[in-house]
Write a structure and sequence with these properties.
The chain has 133 residues and is an alpha+beta fold. Helices cover 53% and strands 26% of the residues. The protein has one domain (2-128). It is built from 2 helices and 3 strands. The longest helix has 58 residues, at 2-59.
């Protein structure tokens, strides 16, 4: 009788340990995956903002060529350009003047059993005008 009770108790302890580990490790695993995805998107946006500032500085203005180059860089990084907002200020610059490219996106972070959060990812680069209009 005591042997059967001891085996049942060991089975309950094993089940409790499995459930405890599952409720701890599942959110950690999802957190790592979600955070990795956000970092991937942010790095892609950083690259797009950098190349956008470079091209905007070369051209001395915000035009379709600059926007297309930013869009191409976002697609190459695996980021959907329709979920990204691009701001280039000012629209025209002269030699040596700064031109800023900012790439913004709104993302949703959800980790099971812990929290959900809306985040804004922002990347900003400044280029220098390389032309005189």
């Amino acid at each position: 009788m005591t042997r059967g009770r001891h085996q049942r108790q060991r089975g309950q302890e094993t089940l409790q340990a499995v459930l405890a580990v599952a409720f701890i490790l599942v959110p950690v695993l999802f957190g790592i995956v979600e955070l990795g995805g956000l970092i991937h998107i942010w790095i892609g946006e950083q690259a797009a903002a950098a190349i956008g500032a470079r091209v905007a500085g070369e051209r001395g203005e915000d035009d379709a060529v600059v926007r297309d180059r930013i869009r191409t860089e976002l697609v190459a990084a695996g980021v959907d350009p329709s979920h990204v907002q691009v701001n280039v200020t000012p629209a025209f610059v002269r030699w040596g003047q700064p031109i800023t490219v900012q790439v913004l996106s709104h993302r949703h972070l959800a980790i099971p059993f812990l929290f959900t959060q809306d985040l804004t990812l922002s990347s900003r680069y400044v280029g220098r005008g390389e032309v005189n209009h």
